[in-house]
Amino acid sequence: MFAIATDMGALVLLTLLFSLSSAPAHGWPDQDYKDQLLSSAQLDKDWLISIRRQIHENPELRFQEHNTSALIRQQLHQLCIPYSYPFANTGIVAQIGSGSKPVVALRADIDALPLQELVEWEHRSKFDGKMHACGHDAHTTMLLGAAKLLNQRKDRLQGTVRLLFQPAEEGGAGASHMIKEGALGDAEAIFGIHVDFEIPTGSIGLISGPVLAATSFFEAKIQGVGGHAAGPHLTVDPILAASLAILALQQLTSREADPLDSQVLSITYVRGGSTFNVIPSYVEFGGTLRSLTTKGLYRLQQRLKEVIEGQAAVHRCKAFIDMKEEEYPFYPAVVNDDGLHQHVEKVGRLLLGPENIKRGEKIMAGEDFAFYQEKIPGYMISIGMRNEELGSIHPMHSPYFFLDEDVLPIGAALNTALAELYLNEHKHSILDPA
Ligand SMILES: *[C@@H]1O[C@H](CO)[C@@H](O)[C@H](O)[C@H]1NC(C)=O
Ligand SMILES: [Zn+2]
Ligand SMILES: [Zn+2]
């Protein structure tokens, strides 16, 4: 009892000291703040473009981002920004600010896709079969841009910003490895920006709650007994068993899923047999499962197993199901934090004007940003880069994907303001009992 009373007394005293010594809360920044930040970012535009083009020309696949990582470290070194390396093989965490709480994190992904670039332009990928077709070259550049801006303004930072340069977003769950290796540190919130070809450059798309799906993949093997097709009674036909299993699976989304929890179950290949008169001994098929809630995906995975095994058994076959976790790790759903939504919207309105804040769209793609959001509140923002004149009209993962580079300074400024203003608004949270 006594000890507790002492602690309470200390806390009250500390609170008192802090409220006396800390400067009065700054008001919400004005037009000057916005003009200054945006013009500083525009001054860096040529530098940003040159970095983005270097990364674009030299794409590296998940967990092999060695040159990309070296380029980032070299830039941080030149800017005199301290960083830790490596995280998750090639990842980097830079840190700017006071070193004390509150701490906020910004994240960029750095990996490219196994895709042949089909855009004919001067700075196309120099490596056949590899391309930055998801804009991660832009994300990396925008975060380096923010690093420079934050560093120029570090004296006014009311806490600490951690900048996460993360490998292997594309299927490698790089984020989960970053977390395991301590990349989040004491961060209490995290922001991530992804380019979006559907809304014009200069705008952003925001959506609170579920945004992107929890995703997983699977492969099933149905084992029967092969034999001559003229004597089916002497075989155990895996083709029939696989066919009925595939049909039965469709009922999981149509009959068992909550209609308000969007789910997808797609079978994307079937392999079995090779000729007209032989019943094969086994059939393989596989595909993907998605759900806007992580819980929904776990349930779908469980039921997928039960249905395939059950259907196989009915037809006297055996089923083997592999969720392919090694090659294609499970991703949780991306769920944007309601509290951070207010912050992002305010910052967006200030920086880009209310008319440029659009309602985001949910899609059933996955993003490993979700792993951070399982640990701390997080928010993913879509940043517009559509520009019809330039031909920046192609979706992510298209070999024709083409970035409007005007997005780079905007993204750098947005990252900066998100972190800086978050710290301004949360600088007292050091006293929160949590
Ligand atoms: C990485 O850098 C090395 C040395 O400069 C170069 O030989 C290699 O081609 C680069 N690889 C990629 C994927 O950019
Ligand atoms: Zn992608
Ligand atoms: Zn992406």
UniProtKB/TrEMBL annotation:
Keyword Transmembrane annotated: no
InterPro entries: Amidohydrolase, Bact_exopeptidase_dim_dom, ILR1-like_Hyd, Peptidase_M20, Peptidase_M20_dimer
Top-level division of the source organism's lineage: Eukaryota
The entry's keywords: Hydrolase, Signal
Signal peptide: 1-27
Domain called Peptidase M20 dimerisation: residue spans: 218-312
Entry keyword Acyltransferase: no
Family designation: Belongs to the peptidase M20 family.
Protein name: Peptidase M20 dimerisation domain-containing protein
Organism of this sequence: Hibiscus sabdariffa
Lineage per the UniProt record: Eukaryota, Viridiplantae, Streptophyta, Embryophyta, Tracheophyta
